[in-house]
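User: I want to check something. If I give you two sequences, will you return the structure for each one separately, not as a complex?

Assistant: Yes, each is folded on its own. Here is the first sequence with its structure:
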Amino acid sequence: MIKILVDCFGGDHSPEANIDGALAALRQFPDLQVILTGDEVVLGAKLAERQYDKERAEVVHAPQVIGCDERPTDVIRMKRDSSMMKAIMMLRDRDDIAAMVSTGSTGALVTGALVRIGRLRGIIRPAFCPLLPTMSGGIVGICDSGANVEVTPAHLRQFAIMASLYMENVYGVSSPRTALLNVGKEAGKGDGIRQEAYTLLQETPDVHFVGNMESRELLTGFYDVVVCDGFSGNVLVKSVEGTALELLKKLKRDIFSRTVYKVGALLMKRMFEEEKAFMNYQNYGGSVLLGTSKVVVKGHGSSKAVAVCKCIEQAYRMETSGLNPKIEAAIAKYEHYEE
């Protein structure tokens, strides 16, 4: 039985989305057990309204809730009974629990995971790796997307190794094509960090390095992994998501602006629905935190039930694929760089 913790408070649609996503995951995976953390009175009342396998769902009382404006270091010390910190501590202390999923505060989750759970052997810094769909029908992982604003070339090489193994083992991408985010495709582009990282990645047999990538090529399908610092990666991901949402809004406005467009849209309704689903980030889960000693998945704060279910699926597949031991083995092949 694979046991996964679900932090049920902190997201925009919690606890309903977290509960419904967890129960959907139970129906999808017969060998899955979920542990829901949060106010047991609230969770109990919500669960009483739903049909599910009660043998595979457990509630752990955690009455406190972490706000997005709270300092992560304060949370670790003062909110140990919060739904997130209770999940983090249980993940650390219990060998039978494989992973946790949260849609709460990113800063609190990263800090709590690093301080309480710790890193895999040889990992300098863990990194977030969200997924985006590509125009070729595949997916691309962006690593890092917010955990590390400042990086060294050694960090970027580790991000590339971890993300490549993630895409290969969890999503079946053979020899993932890995690029370095830069201001130009030529080898000499970028600052000193990017130039040195380029050389390191060329000397890393565990990574199928294909050179630099400009941001406009992210969704082309030419790449399976893009490596970057957390600041650039966060801006990249949110810019793409925001552009997709605004284009959908404009398309809807234009369709309703003229009768002839409405008629045409009616004939193309199925295609529009498919395109909307293709660009909806809710269908792609969350950002996995690669490099921690236990599996941690961070969902969007606006995650609905389908996104929470996808996050749990990501955690499940990371655990069943044996990803973390494979990351440790790959990292051990290379010289350890100090920060």
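And separately, the second sequence with its own structure:
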Amino acid sequence: MAVIELGPDAIAPRTLDADESQMLNAVMRHSLGVRSGEHVLVVTDPPKRSLGELFARGAFRATPAVQLLIMPEMPDHGSEPPSQVAAAMAAADVCFLATSKSLSHTHARQSASAAGARVASMPSITYEMAMRTLRVDYGEIARSSEALALLLTAADFVHLTGPGGTDLHLDLTGRAGSADTGVFTAAGAFGNLPAGEAFIAPLEGRAHGTLVFDAALPVDDPDDAVRDAPMVIDVRDGRAQRVTGPGAEDLQVVFDRLGDDARNIAELGIGTNPAARISGNVLECEKVVGTAHVALGNSLHIGGATDVPFHSDGVINRPTILAGDTLLLEDGRLPA
């Protein structure tokens, strides 16, 4: 399908209820700080169109300059969007990316941020998730996320373990941690909604051990197969090697199509959002307090060096994380 642009008159009219109004006001005012006269772009695709239209209606409450683009669903998280969408992102003041596949780790998103756009990426978001997780105190989430990011920056090495069998060593030498705070009011600010994590790109070629994704998979999991059995990945020389369990064949298809860079251990993240729940949806699961996530593929846009059109996270429940000599989490809990 071609990219479709909808103006204000074409967006299906609907009265917002009180809870929707509260959620959208929180997003527009507190998370993105949308001001009257600013150009807001909403990017969506057919599976997420109703969510895209909801955020467009919310944006109209703050500014009349709202553009809604409906693009084809992309093949992977991290696939580049059509050039028309990329150009519109770079020209906007604020971007809401309510899409099925993530545009976070793309050159299009990075170019929009470099041009000063404030970007909220919401891949695979659902209505229920938005209503539950976008009205929380992101000020407190920002404080905890930033504190963990500083600890990751200070560490040269991390040892990540979990009761499901995860036992992974990561080299963080020279890499800086970042925080996804849910407050994107400065020019060029970027993050997820729902937000709530500290994250870092490990050094390429150095990760080794075992990953056991027992909370959410780095591939689509429509049957919630991870509840019955985890995905297990052997990691050597910084890359995913043997993969077993649910989703293994789907992940191998990605590796075969995109090459060995898709196997790169790209990110370590720690969830900090108390409103997020284990749901099988990676966008939400990776924000859950008491979880960690590890991504495969692209790390270029978060401080790493691997550039491949794929970035997808798997989530680990109740991890223990030792960063250098500092215990960040123990069995999913902050140390006393």
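Because they were folded independently, the notes below concern the second chain alone. DSSP finds eight helices and 18 strands in the chain. Residues 4-133 form one domain.
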